[in-house]
Amino acid sequence: MDDLSIHKIQISGTTLASILHRLFSSSGDIHGLLFGHVSFSTTIPLSDDPATTSTAVTIASDDGPIRTATITDFLSIPSHFPLPLHQLDDPSAAVLGWFSGRRKTPLRPSLKDSTTTLSLTSSASHSFTPQNAPYLLSLPPSLFLLLTTPFHEQLIHTHEYKAFQYRISTDSFDPKSLDIINIGPSFRSHYGSFSPNSPFPLISCDLRGPNAMAEDEKVESLLSIKRGLKDQKELDLCAEGFEIGRLNKLMGSDASNYTVELEHLYDKMLVKLDSLARLVETSSAKVLEQENHNMKLRYKVAGLK
């Protein structure tokens, strides 16, 4: 396996927030695997800072193409269990390394971290090939992400984290900057990982012919009325208040004349999403109120009040 330096480590804000939440909500320390991919790039980043551009040019010319590791997913378990050394179902996501989350400890790797990382990097079964590599090579899972909490209790929960790359040649950890990406071109690689849980319902809309008035004058049967009510009910789940007849107008050759109807459909969908968000906000407030009430009862039973 090749021991090449990783120039950049990227992670989405949602993935990092999920790892921090997993650490905060767990009863003890946790650790787990980091999944993602490594890609090669020879492009120069667009920046107004001349120092940043010159640094990127120096890296790309002196050490070959820029190697960027992108963390897209993770798997965590309590730290008293061994690491689950297995791959994800997604073949494009390789094991890039692992992470360790512990409370009130220094933000530097320990001897145990070195042993675990060395064992992981020495496993030939977890080596992977970077994307768009200019030549054939195999990289070990050498990334290590350390997360911890402050030594002193604070009113606001805070976390500290730092990324490293383990170099086999020097048997040491190299500190690396961790770029949190949420928007922009750097975030495009994460778009493919999103899959909608609530797709638009399949509704059998009839295409309107050129003689729409003649179609409107047809006598509707009981079956068509029932089907229309069923379709309307499914449509209300996505865009409440938007009639199924107006959706029919958006189908066929005359759809270009009904752009206003399409905009109104989007407005109804946004209103539905807003109502769902408010419902979640209200339920979260009630859950928090109930948790505070339960905590007061526990304190009262324990005689702490």
Automatic annotation (TrEMBL):
It comes from Nicotiana tabacum. CDD domains: Abraxas_plant (cd23656). Signal peptide: none annotated. GO terms for molecular function: polyubiquitin modification-dependent protein binding. It comes from the Eukaryota. This is BRCA1-A complex subunit Abraxas-like. One of its GO terms (cellular component) is nucleus. The gene is LOC107775552. Coiled coil: none annotated.
